[in-house]
Write a structure and sequence with these properties.
The chain is α/β, with parallel strands linked by helices. The protein has 10 helices and 17 strands. About 25% of the residues lie in helices and about 30% in strands.
């Protein structure tokens, strides 16, 4: 099968088209013909070797965890799916090796959900990792219709999903972003503020009593302002800084594959409740350019590779 793989850690230049055997599947795994695969920041961080101590890697590595496609062959014990079913998945495995930038992918059944007819394969491939990260963070934060919420990085790949989910829950949502993304956030029902300058004063002008929930999808500096912005008894949740848990009694979220969560999230997109913004698409042979686009940090929305 055609695939994009790398044999050593390095820049996007190590990503090369190659031919590999079609993946072997176990009894609880689906062989999926890939239609589209999402690219996420974690993909280039693994490729650069930054997560070597956290995740086991076996070369050659086919990168990618997000996938949308068609079941080619169901495993022996996968009664939820049949050949020909359209699926999406956050197909993270314990070993980083056989990913989704390929013609075929082995997808653990616990990570997969049926793709609603209203989703394109590109939308479906853009959704799993970022969407689930936001979905699980919002749920664990405990926010509700009466909550006042501050979202750091609200226009980013995860933040845009988190902002929409918080608005859908009925919360009053304030989001940090660069000025160029303020109209985008306003269109989602979010009060935008610039993360440059005096963030605390800008946030306090909107929420003088502070925030019930702070969601950190940006990392840099977000925890430093928590003492000034979080209400007593409030909740802070971060996907990037363990101080949310260790210093403030909140949550540190490392997204989990979950077929039920993914099915619920996909349903929200299919119904039009949540929008998936796709910044760019690339074909498989130009997957290295897709990695470069994500690595630049200048895309708004998701980068997708079509196969």
């Amino acid at each position: 099968m055609r695939a994009i793989a790398y044999q050593e850690f390095g820049s996007a230049d190590v990503l090369q088209p190659t031919d590999l055997p079609t993946p072997h599947i176990g009894p609880d795994t689906l062989l999926v013909k890939v239609k589209a695969a999402g690219v996420n920041p974690v993909d280039y961080k693994i490729r650069q070797g930054y997560l070597e101590g956290l995740l086991d890697v076996r070369f050659p590595v086919v990168p990618g965890w997000d996938v949308a496609g068609v079941v080619e062959q169901p495993g022996l014990d996968t009664p939820e799916f049949q050949a020909g079913d359209e699926i999406l998945a956050y197909a993270r495995a314990d070993l980083v090796s056989g990913g989704t930038l390929a013609e075929y992918a082995a997808v653990p059944v616990r990570t997969a959900a049926h793709k609603p007819a209203g989703l394109s394969f590109e939308q479906a491939a853009a959704l799993p990792l970022a969407g689930l990260t936001a979905f699980q963070s919002v749920r664990r934060s405990g926010l509700g219709a009466s909550s006042t919420v501050l979202i750091h990085g609200a226009a980013g790949g995860v933040g845009a999903f988190g902002a929409q989910l918080a608005v859908h829950a009925g919360a009053t949502v304030v989001g940090t972003a660069s000025p160029g993304n303020h109209d985008f956030l306003a269109g989602l029902g979010v009060r935008p503020i610039d993360y440059h300058g005096d963030l605390v004063s800008a946030a306090r002008r909107i929420a003088p009593d502070g925030f019930d929930v702070i969601l950190d999808f940006a990392g840099v500096g977000a925890m430093d302002t928590v003492p000034d912005l979080l209400k007593t008894g409030g909740n802070v949740t971060s996907i990037l800084d363990a101080r949310a848990r260790d210093d403030f009694g909140g949550q540190y979220v490392w997204v989990r594959p979950d077929s039920h969560d993914l099915a619920e999230l996909a349903g929200l997109v299919a119904s039009g409740t949540i929008n998936v913004e796709i910044a760019q698409t690339f074909d498989l042979e130009h997957a290295a350019d897709a990695h470069r686009a994500v690595e630049s940090g200048h895309t708004r929305g998701k980068v997708v590779v079509t196969v």
